[in-house]
Amino acid sequence: MAKIIISGGSGLVGSNLSKKLQINGHEVFWLSRTPAKMQNAAYYWDPEKAEIDLACLDGTSAIIHLAGAGVADHKWTAAYKQTILQSRILGSQLLVRTLANNPHSIKIFIGASAVGIYGNQTPPLCKEEDELGNTFLAQVCKDWEKENAAIKELGIRLCTVRIGIVLSSKGGFLKEIGNLANYGLAAPLGNGKMQTPWIHEDDLANLFIHLLENGNCAGVYNGVAPNCVSNAAITKMIAKALHRPFFLPAVPAFVLKIMMGEMAGMLLANQDIAADKIQASGFTFEFTGAEQAIENLIGKGHQQ
User: Fold this and answer.
1) Which of the listed residues 74, 139, 221, 287 has the most CB atoms within 10 Å of its CB?
2) Please, what is the Cα angle at 95 between 89 and 100, to 5 degrees?
3) Among 143, 139, 65, which residue's Cα sits nearest to residue 99?
4) What's the burial of 146, exposed, middle or buried (CB within 10 Å: 0-12/13-18/19+)?
């Protein structure tokens, strides 16, 4: 059993990962500005104030850094774009500085990133070593990964997971499209042909655990399922799983750009991302088909 610290533990990815880790026998603690209010045991931290409870290091062998403001939570004003960046960078800087200046037993640091690092247009089956993008989100991811890279200089094993669209029974993409589908309003975006790099929430949690428990794993890994699908296809799959009609025409790209501004580029991104590297490390996906994953999650959602 290992003691593991997670930043962003109460989020969509962190909460499911925490449960999986506990099932696997690990002891999980979160970092939080309000630890007393957390459903999970937590230590105080506040990256903006550069404050952290050093007791979090006692007996801890791993840190999983997920914390960051949601990229789709608000319109991308100049102020919110700064929030998106700083919420990631300040947390990484605080963790690196804390580990550099205090005794600890950390053996591995797993940092989150996103497939947005490749930009809005990728080559087919884009791999971890392929060219990075120059969009706002690409720069955020590059800056985040650069800050986390300082961990290696401390002799700590570093893994980075570039996460795709997480399909979850509790929220995010599946819930948003599902809500529209329930009213018969689900529709593709743009031309609908854009490749969508998705991953089932349980596979993503298991991928993190695989990296944690396998000492030979290090470096950057794409956190996506092996088979990307088009935006139109995945939207139709969600409507079908909910037994709802799918007949509306696609939402034109220019309408999205008027409504969403710069964020529309993220919604219209065509990202065909490969999962070869994580599979070559010995990881096996439970859900390799989007339709299978969606049906499983919608079934889970009805049971909850």
Assistant:
1) 221
2) 125
3) 65
4) exposed
- Angle between helical axes of 172-182 and 290-303 (0-180°, round to 10): 80
d(CA 278, CA 223): 8
User: How many other β-carbons are positioned within 10 Å of the β-carbon of residue 176?
Assistant: 13
Give residue 2's pLDDT band: very low, low, confident or very high (50, 70, 90): very high
Kind of pairing, strands 60-65 and 3-7?
A: parallel
Which one-letter DSSP state was computed for residue 168? -
pLDDT digits (tens, 9 = 90+) for 147-194: 999 999 999 999 999 999 999 989 999 999 999 999 888 999 999 999
Tally of domains within the chain: 1
CATH code at position 207 = 3.40.50.720
Which of 290, 293, 185, 193 is CA-nearest to residue 245?
185
Amino acid at 89: I
The answer to whether 148 and 65 have CB atoms below 8 angstroms apart is yes
Chain-centroid distance of CA 64 in Å reads: 12
Helices (H) and strands (E) in the chain — how many of each? 10, 12
Q: Which residue spans within 17-149 are E strands per DSSP?
A: 27-32, 42-46, 51-52, 60-65, 108-114
Contact 67, 109 (CB under 8 A): no
Handedness of CA 132, 138, 257, 268 (dihedral sign): positive
For 288, the domain range is 3-303
Tokens at 213, concatenated: 């428990």
Cα–Cα distance for residue pair 99/255, rounded to 1 Å: 47
